[in-house]
Specification:
It is a single chain. The chain has 528 residues and is α+β, with helices and mostly antiparallel strands. The protein has a six-stranded antiparallel β-sheet. It has a five-stranded antiparallel β-sheet with strand order 23-18-20-19-24, covered by helices on one side. A four-stranded antiparallel β-sheet has the order 4-5-3-8. It contains eleven helices and 30 strands. 39% of the residues are buried. The protein has four domains: 134 residues, Alpha-Beta Plaits (2-Layer Sandwich), CATH 3.30.70.330; 167 residues, Alpha-Beta Plaits, CATH 3.30.70.330; 92 residues, 2-Layer Sandwich (Alpha-Beta Plaits); 75 residues, RRM (RNA recognition motif) domain (Alpha-Beta Plaits). A hairpin with a 2-residue loop joins strand 6 and strand 7.
């Protein structure tokens, strides 16, 4: 390195020219948040894709500078908000790469500019590959392969083997661990060759890739229940029953079916009456090696949104039961804690409409003292899990929404005479519930937020231009539109981004189109 100083000005940058890096002082305490993050104690054998994976759960990664000789890296996020969310998560929950803790802080620099540096080829190839995957492209070019960058070319189904099964691992445990890497669609658990195994299908191959990279070799509990993960040859899972052996989170209407013990009798007997109850992990790439607790002792875990609280585990002799303070001993919780909301834009009705895509919302409460937080009560725990899997991490009104299980079992309505400012609403008997009719087609059409929306209940008098103008009035950019050929009461509309589609759905679902027709809006898996 030479001794020249970084460029000055409103946006400070790290300039890379030729083979020389201009001097930076990476250990200075940053004055303010920045979308450039400084990572320290990077293991020498970590590759670019693994460093990028730390940022992917929080938003788009736009640049990377690896300084392997210094065991450091600079990661540039697309927005300062994404960087803030990332730092807020990793500050109390230190990420690990190759078993070593990695420390993340804001950089003093506001932008990375890595021009004409030959050894940046690998970083740029990895970034381009990730961006291509996030745009829905699975193509792997020869240029990437020539650089030796490991890219996610596999499918969306993972095969999971759990070794050293000291505590039971249930379908719910796997869902909670893996769902924070993306939308988990289906899980099947079984025992084969005296090994506990599972097949888990994500909505997107990229989610499967990062989950495998982050969790393979990690232990769910300290020193036991170690995960060994590879890609399955299956492209999709077929689930006939929703029970403790199999679950299709997109089909709430499936029957329970015959439910035999998920574990072989000899293994199940060894567990006795022990069972585990806990809220969802707020996982992201880089779980610590021990994601749980040691028997007979409490392990403090950082109180980040959705993560485990302080655990107190009783010995088997005492009760054989593992307890988490503040979480009642019930099969599941239907109340969600939703945080990082935009208080200037969000309303109880908006949350009711958005979360109502994934279940029937009974009550919504926006916190009076902190309007960035809200409680959403779903009809049951399965719908609550479904909402978490699809909405956690979604951008809504300019902020990345966080959703996890609440410690509360119900949303309390304000007492008579208590000033609530309209922040608590009861929707128990709302006519807008999508899933109140058993066997409804709505059960089979639950999809993650997407830029393409499915429209229905359109009266004959409404034209293409009418609908385009309606959606543009919400600030959306209409990229494509088409009516269904066989049924002109339905249509698809493609907007400029997923976030635009989320806003349009919130504002226009149940919009009065006249002639006693109210527009029905949902996310679509189709493209135009």
């Amino acid at each position: 390195m030479n001794n020249s100083t970084p460029a000055t000005g409103i946006h400070r940058k790290i300039f890379i020219t030729g083979n020389h890096e201009k001097k930076f002082n990476g250990d200075r305490a940053p004055c303010s948040p920045s979308r450039v993050l400084h990572l320290r104690q990077i293991p020498s054998d970590v590759n670019e894709a693994e460093v990028i994976s730390l940022g992917v759960p929080f938003g788009k990664v736009t640049n990377l500078l690896m300084l392997k000789r210094k065991s450091q890296a600079f990661l540039e996020m697309a927005s300062e908000e994404a960087a803030v969310t990332m730092v807020n998560y990793y500050t109390p929950a230190t990420p690990y790469l190759h078993g070593q803790p990695v420390y993340i802080q804001y950089s003093n620099y506001k932008e990375l500019k890595t021009d004409n540096l030959p050894n940046q080829a690998r970083a740029q190839a990895a970034l381009q590959a990730v961006n291509a995957m996030q745009s829905g492209s699975l193509a792997i070019t020869n240029a990437f392969a020539d650089e030796g960058v490991l890219l996610p070319g596999q499918g969306s189904v993972l095969r999971i083997i759990v070794e050293n099964l000291f505590y039971p691992v249930t379908l719910e445990v796997l869902y909670e661990v893996f769902s924070k890497f993306g939308s988990v669609l289906k899980i099947i658990i079984f025992t084969k060759n005296n090994q506990f195994q599972a097949l888990l299908q994500y909505a997107d191959p990229m989610n499967a890739y990062y989950a495998k990279m982050a969790l393979n070799g990690q232990s769910i509990y300290t020193g036991c229940c170690t995960l060994h993960i590879d890609f399955s040859k299956l492209t999709s899972l077929t689930v006939k029953y929703n029970n403790d052996k199999s679950r299709d989170f997109t089909r709430l209407d499936l029957p329970f079916g015959d439910c035999q013990p998920s574990l072989e009798p000899s293994i199940a007997a060894a567990f006795g009456t022990q069972h585990i109850i806990f809220p969802a992990y707020a996982g992201a790439a880089g779980f610590p090696p021990a994601m749980g607790f040691a028997q007979g002792a409490g392990l403090p875990v950082p109180a980040v949104p959705g993560a485990l609280g302080s655990l107190i585990v009783t010995t088997p002799e005492a009760s054989g039961h593992m307890i988490i303070p503040g979480v009642p001993d019930v099969p599941g919780n239907s109340v969600l804690l939703v945080s990082n909301l935009n208080p200037e834009a969000i309303t109880p009705h908006g949350l009711f409409i958005l979360f109502g895509v994934y279940g029937d919302v009974h009550r919504v409460k926006i916190m009076f003292k902190n309007k960035e937080n809200a409680l959403v009560q779903m009809a049951d725990a399965t719908q609550a899990q479904l909402a978490i899997s699809h909405l956690n991490g979604q951008r809504v009104y300019g902020r990345v929404l966080h959703a996890t299980f609440s410690k509360h079992q119900a949303v309390q309505l304000p007492r008579e005479g208590q000033e609530d400012h309209g922040l608590t609403k009861d929707y128990t008997n709302s006519p807008l519930h999508r899933f109140k009719k058993p066997g409804s087609k709505n059960f089979q059409n639950i999809f993650p937020p997407s830029a393409t929306l499915h429209l229905s209940n359109i009266p004959p008098s409404v034209t293409v231009d009418d609908l385009k103008n309606l959606f543009e009035s919400t600030g959306s950019t209409v990229k494509a539109f088409k009516f269904f050929q066989k049924d002109c009461k339905m249509a698809l509309i493609q907007l400029g981004s997923v976030e635009e589609a989320v806003h349009a759905l919130i504002e226009l679902h149940n919009h009065d189109l006249g002639e006693n027709h109210h527009l029905r809006v949902s996310f679509s898996k189709a493209t135009i």
